[in-house]
Amino acid sequence: MDWKHAKTLFIIVFILIDIGLVLVYFNKVNNSIVQESNDQSDVNFTKEGIDLPNLPSYKNKEMQAITADSKSFTSNDLEGVYTLSEKDTKISKDLDDENLTKDSKEQTFKSLINKEAYKGKEYHQKENNKDKNKVIYEQNYDDLPILNNSKGEIVFNIENGKVKNFTQTYLDKLKPGTGDNNSKQKVVDAKTALETLYYNTYLTKGDTVESVRLGYYSVVKEIGGQVLVPSWEVKVKSKEDGKEKTTLLYVDAIKPESTVLEES
After folding, report:
1. How far is CA 225 from CA 12, 137, 147, 167, 182, in A?
2. What keywords does the record list, in alphabetical order (predicted)?
3. Is the torsion defined by CA of 190, 194, 200, 202 positive or negative?
4. Strands 185-186 and 66-70
């Protein structure tokens, strides 16, 4: 045996083993750093002085962008009961029930909608309505609301505490948008959406998050149609110049870093 060559071979093997061990060590260190960094990136909203409600959970929820058109009502849709109040895209109906008030139970309104409105079963009461003179029902798609959209809602108008009439608009042909990049994707959780707002200074010390909802928000509102993307709606109460201010913010639920929309 050539011991000189064997010695050289053993040295090379040991060097390779040492290099492998060093690489394994650095991988572990890097993974530890990444994990620590991720832990540190979580915002402690309590310590930051920002009040949060109970956040909704949609574990493993997958969504995609959808499209829709404003419904143009015809005489066949109206059936002699409604009247057109805005071109042909909004209908209205007067109500004579003296017992129907703003404080009537939700079930009462829902029963009336299911019976009287066009495809009323697709509408559900808006959770964070702040208008004292209106009771608002939002059109839903795939069990989630169409957020803050005047083209897909039923509005009960209140006068002197009594419900006088309701108006209705309807988003027709709701369906997934076409395109290779519009496959269903997992949505981020509510806390991630709030962290996006925090890092973009939409949430600051002293703010109160009053509600957080998942739904579809329109990013393209054309006469001929709309494009609605999965979004988190965040209702924030803050103080500006000593006065309370309420703001609605919308965060893309699939790519939160790319879209923060504000609607006062």
Report:
1. 69, 21, 16, 20, 17
2. Membrane, Transmembrane, Transmembrane helix
3. positive
4. unpaired
